[in-house]
């Protein structure tokens, strides 16, 4: 986390230098609603991603606006290479940036640049310590007779 934090701070400093030299740039961002990352209440955007973007904008001295992706999608790459959602808006220049809980994938990286992730999610299973020695992989689960 420390290396991500120092990287983010360096990026913020570069953005601040750039924005101060061009007198408060106004950027246009595209998003999709996925609570708690981005959601709308009383025609205003809120959420974790919005809070992070607000902090970056305040520190860096730029303004921005957000709009919803017209098709409401994050952005997929079809087998023919067509893209939709946030990816489409950024790739074709309708938006300056995308703001969402968007997974970085190799197919998406062919179309747009990504910042370093500000959050990583993982899935874990919790096992009581008395059962831990018997369960090492998912293949060990069918042998279990006691599930609590």
Automatic annotation (TrEMBL):
UniProt KW keywords: Coiled coil, Glycoprotein, Ion channel, Ion transport, Ligand-gated ion channel, Membrane, Receptor, Signal, Transmembrane, Transmembrane helix, Transport
Single GO MF descriptor: ligand-gated monoatomic ion channel activity
UniProt key word Ion transport: yes
Topology with respect to the bilayer: Multi-pass membrane protein
GO cellular component: organelle; plasma membrane
Signal peptide per UniProt: 1-24
Residue ranges of coiled coil: none
Domain Ionotropic glutamate receptor L-glutamate and glycine-binding, chain residue ranges per copy: 36-92
Compartments, record wording: Membrane
Pfam entry (one): Lig_chan-Glu_bd
PANTHER family, A to Z: IONOTROPIC GLUTAMATE RECEPTOR (PTHR18966)
Protein name (Swiss-Prot/TrEMBL): Ionotropic glutamate receptor L-glutamate and glycine-binding domain-containing protein
């Amino acid at each position: 986390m420390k290396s991500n934090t120092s990287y983010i701070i360096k990026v913020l400093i570069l953005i601040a230098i750039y924005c101060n030299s061009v007198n408060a740039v106004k950027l246009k961002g595209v998003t999709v609603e996925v609570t708690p990352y981005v959601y709308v209440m009383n025609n205003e955007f809120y959420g974790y991603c919005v809070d992070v973007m607000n902090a970056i904008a305040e520190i860096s001295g730029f303004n921005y606006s957000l709009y919803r992706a017209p098709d409401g999608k994050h952005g997929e790459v079809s087998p023919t290479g067509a893209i939709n959602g946030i990816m489409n808006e950024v790739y074709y220049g309708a938006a300056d940036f995308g703001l969402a809980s968007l997974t970085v994938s190799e197919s998406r990286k062919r179309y747009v640049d990504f910042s370093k992730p500000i959050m990583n999610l993982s899935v874990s299973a919790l096992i009581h310590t008395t059962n831990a020695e018997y369960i090492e992989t998912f293949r060990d689960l069918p042998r279990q007779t006691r599930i609590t």
